[in-house]
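ok so for the tutorial part 2 we go from a plain amino acid sequence to predicted structure tokens. step 1 is just haveing the sequence, like this:
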Amino acid sequence: MNKIITTLLLSTALSAHAIEPLPPETMDDTRVFKVEVLQVTDIEPYREALNGFLKSLQNNGLVDGKNLSVHKATIDFDAENGGFWSKLGVLLRIRQEATRIVEAKPDLVLTIGTPATKYARGMMTDAHIPLVFTAVANPEDAGCVSLVDAGEGATGSTLYTDMTDSLKLVQDVFPQVHRIGMVHSDDDNGIANVAAATTKGKPLGLDVSARQVSKNEHIAPKLKELYAAGAEMFAVPLDTYYGLHRYEASLDLGDFGIENKVPVVTLAMVSVPGAALYIGADFKQVGQLAGTQAAKILKRHTKPDVLPILRQETPTVLVDPARLEALKVALPAQLSARKTVAANGLWQIDLVK
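step 2 — the prediction. this is what the tokens look like for a chain of 353 residues:
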């Protein structure tokens, strides 16, 4: 399923202005640009974001190993053996890596995810090192002025999608659902995603209940709690928890939904076998958007402050028809008319039509 999602997301087109290569006269054939990459945890969506970033730079004549030198630092923990996960500990480790990066004096820093962005940007600003971020759910949670203004010394791209629009789409497909259960960790993106769903769901008549788990906690007990409390659907937030332990939480959630005939939807483009509906921004596309801004900084010497935060304007929507059939749910005619059959029988819904 994960390969299916990756293949489909790669096919979704970016707007022309976002991926247009810079003109040749901006290129410097002799210089090797140094880029430092900083992230917390190593999960496949983050790898996709980085791949998109590097692809965008390549499209602009910046090639790793040629005129580009990329060094990546991942702040991780022993996910398989119950490793230490403390916000204070993560903060200290980010600060340590940020200190090393400042001493390395790179031409640009890419931060992937909210924690790395939030806690490293101040040191980069003080050192006058341009910072570009990606895979951030809500820029304001990473210290940005607004959804489009990153503030001093920074720019980037965001995974932000309008939660109201996403929940309306969920209602279009599952009009009988009024109570949604969500499980999240202490991940900044996950917390923000659940908070948005809770707030935006109320005016739509959707009651969102949430449970928090530790990064190494099994998801099943929380699913049982929510189900016993009346959850009619489970929604997956944008949370690194679902990509850890070889996608254990995602697999268990999918199995729980199938066994109890409860629909599962994802509000992020992460692989959840058993999910009927996927709504969210494509990590690779969002990474490419960050690369677009980075190319302008490196090749045109544009200050990051003047570059807006970019985002995928229309979310990617995928449907698993087999899961809909198992749930005895028919895709509404207005959505069915917009579908195209994709790899392995999944449907992609074009919201732009």
